[in-house]
Every structure is written in structure tokens, then in C-alpha cells.
Design a protein that fits this description.
Layout lengths: L4 E4 L5 H12 L3 E6 L10 H7 L3 E5 L5 H14 L6 E4 L5 E2 L7 H29 L2 E5 L12 H21 L5 E7 L6 H4 L1 E2 L11 H16 L7 H12 L6 E4 L1 H10 L4 H18 L10
Parallel strand pairs: 1-2, 1-4, 2-3, 4-6, 5-8, 6-7, 7-9
Helix pairs in contact: 1-8, 3-4, 4-5, 7-10, 9-10
The structure holds NADP nicotinamide-adenine-dinucleotide phosphate.
Length: 295
Amino acid sequence: MNTKTVLITGCSSGFGLEMVNRFLEFDWTVVATLRNASSRQSIFDEQKKKYGSRLKVLNLDVTSSDDRANAVRCVLEEFDGKLDCLVNNAGYGLFGSLEDISEKQLREQMEVNFFAAALITRAFLPALRLARGRIINLSSVFGFSGFPLTSAYCASKFAVEGLTESLRIELAPYGIQVSSVEPGGHRTRFSEQVIWGESSFSESSTYLIPTRGYNSFKAKLSRGANPAKPDAVAKSVVKLAESHRMPARVVCGKDAILMSFFRHRPLGSRIAESLISLIYRKRFIGGVLSKGKLL
Ligand SMILES: NC(=O)c1ccc[n+]([C@@H]2O[C@H](COP(=O)([O-])OP(=O)(O)OC[C@H]3O[C@@H](n4cnc5c(N)ncnc54)[C@H](OP(=O)(O)O)[C@@H]3O)[C@@H](O)[C@H]2O)c1
């Protein structure tokens, strides 16, 4: 019987919820954390019936220092101060041109996707050290490839990648392994939760045409047979957590694998940039482009 404990952030839906199920199936004890946990306990009714005390549901808004401190206290008290695996999963996408995003929106994006993950990791390091544990950070295909009208989200995930790569080396002598998981588009609530820049759809926005194009491109993608189901990502995360030696990164989904193939080869970055530019010009901006310029 596996008696290891994992704490996962952002378990109300998507990858987080799938991971809860998958880790429980593999005999882990799971601390499933989410915002406003007291009013959303019913999300886990089935799992509680099936797995009893192996599932603990905890309130954790990743941006709240009180919630973070409480989560650490809980692990220290209930699991002899040890944590075998931390999965930094909570996150959302802020889309829109840099000019259309407010400063507050930009800061909030970094707060949730990067600062919170870094601060939670820091808070749990003593417990992870004691268990010679693992840290798995949910990055994205946008964590290694820039994309137009997605700069804030990309920057937050590039930051997660930098954190992961550096901690991987920094913490190895202390027995802690660190990896990032880089999914492409998957069918979760992510797409409907996307926040657009404050003036993305304002008639006066310079980027209104590509923004509308991107929005309908995104809607078309989420209506189609793709993107892939989220359980594949959850499976990869559990496989990582149970592997003897975690690789630096795991890429999930056909689109991310294709992009990664280009990115990590000589000349590949240029090819990837050309492909993305083509999507931007043809799909987002469409026929409006004249003589290669919008204005
Ligand atoms: N789906 C994709 O295509 C895709 C691709 C690449 C990477 N990702 C990454 O995968 C991770 C999970 O996203 P998902 O696709 O599973 O989307 P999702 O279904 O929208 O789940 C996101 C989770 O993050 C939580 N969250 C957001 N802000 C939070 C906060 N301040 N404190 C605590 N929890 C918070 C949400 O909780 P609430 O219910 O409280 O809002 C939700 O549980 C994210 O980091 C995302 O960037 C997703």
C-alpha cells in the first residue's frame, strides 16, 4: 500500500480534479485544495465515499498568505511534517494585447500563475525535504513558446519554467526532484475562464481585429473534436510522481509535442515563429491585412 501524500492546488475542475482521482486510484493520500472549499465540498462527495480518510479537502486560495500558512500547518500536523509531492496546478489565462491589458490584470496574472506557485513551494520546502519529495509545476506549451495576444500568460508560464529548471538543480542535493508538465490545449474549464484585457474588445483598440479573430479561433477549437481530454495530463503527472527519476519536463498533447519538436531543434525556433506568425496573420487578422501592415 502506497502511503505517500500529495498536495494539489486548484482542484475544483480540470487537470486538478482529474489528478485527485488518479492519485487516489494509485493509493496516494491526497490533500485536494481549492478556493471557497466550505461551499464546494460536494465536488468530492463520490471520492470521499470511496476513499474515506485518504482524501482531505482544504481551503486554499493560492494568493492568500493566510491560506498558504494554514495549508502548511495542516500538513505539519497531520502528516508528521512530511509532504511527498506538491503539484502547483492552480492557474488561469489572461489573453489580449499588452496594450489592452491593465496593470492590475498583468500583476494578478503573475500573482496567481507564478508568485503563488513560488511562495507555496517555498513554504512546503521543509516538509518536502523531510520526505525527499517532488515538486511538479503545471506549465504549458506557452511556457516555452510565445504567442501573439497571449504575452501575459506566456510570461507567467515562462517564469514557472525558469523556477522549475533552477530549483531542479538547487534542490537535487537535498533529495528533492522538480519537473514541469507542459500541456497543449485540453478540454477543461480553462478556455471559458480566460480573462481578456480590459480594453481588448473596445472599439478603439488598435488590436480589435486580431483580438476578435483570436477569440473566434479559440471558440472554434474548443467546439471541435480537439482539444484532448484532461485525464491524459493527470496520468502523466501521477506517472511522474511515481517515477524513479523525474525528467525536467513532460510535454502533453499533439499540439505541444509538435511545438516542442520545433523549439528544441536548430532552426526550429524560426520555423515555429513563422508558423505562429502565419496563424496570426491568416486566422486572426484574416483578409483585413493589406500590404503586410494593419495600419
Ligand atoms: N487546459 C489547457 O488547455 C491548459 C493547457 C496548458 C496549461 N494549462 C494549465 O493547467 C492548469 C490547470 O488548468 P485547467 O486547464 O485544469 O483549467 P481549469 O479547469 O480552469 O482549472 C483551473 C483551476 O485553478 C484554480 N484557480 C484559479 N485561480 C486560483 C486561485 N487564486 N487560488 C486557487 N485556485 C485557483 C481554479 O479554481 P476556481 O474554480 O476557484 O476558479 C481551478 O480549480 C493551469 O495552471 C493552466 O494554466 C491548461
